[in-house]
Amino acid sequence: MRMIVYGAKKVTAMLLRERVIEKEYEEVYQYGMELLISTAWNLLLVIILGALFHQAGAGVLYFLILATVRTQAGGYHASTYFRCGCVYCITFLMVLGFIRLFAYMEVSFAYLMTGLVINNTWIWLQAPVLHNRRMEDGEKKLAKRNAGFACALWTGIAALLYIRSGTAAYAVLASEMMISAYMVIGKMKEDQSL
User: Fold this and answer.
1) Is 129 helix (H, G, I), strand (E, B) or coil?
2) Residue-wise pLDDT tens for the chain (194 aa)?
3) What is the DSSP string of 24-88?
4) Torsion of CA 37, 40, 42, 46, to 10 degrees
5) pTM
């Protein structure tokens, strides 16, 4: 989306003008602003979609889970901000579909936890899926550890959420299933590029 790049250039130019940043770091700051604006845009889209389906809380959970688990686990990354927004919204709509399915099936606490443990073990074993990115071995180990920790944390949060709202707990499982899907697609693209 051109408006993301345009907005990032404008903010970076203002930071240069105000002497907050130095000219030599202009590209780094512009890229960082693009990521920040893109992330805020995606969050807004997911909250709007969630609100339309009376699941704004699921949108917030989806965003937080992707921000904490997927950033460490890796997976597919779209080549443009527009495609990223589209994929982000489509996978969120899939999350909403899974939430409805799990609620319809009245998935029990035991099945929810089993699903989370299996899914999270798979995420941890596969992490990190780099998809056109390189990491040193130490960085890979750290990303794997962080992905495992984030998955364990969300499993605990899902257990607590289930007590209050099965729907919220289902949102955790469905969101982590989408991370697994991102990882599978990223792994396939990674293998194709070798």
Assistant:
1) strand
2) 677 776 777 778 787 777 777 788 778 877 888 888 888 888 999 999 999 999 999 999 999 999 999 989 988 888 888 888 899 999 999 999 999 999 999 999 999 999 999 999 999 999 998 765 677 888 889 999 999 999 999 999 999 999 998 899 999 999 999 999 999 998 888 777 65
3) GGHHHHHHHHHHHHHHHHHHHHHHHHHHHTT-HHHHHHHHHHIIIIIHHHB----SSHHHHHHHH
4) -160
5) 0.86
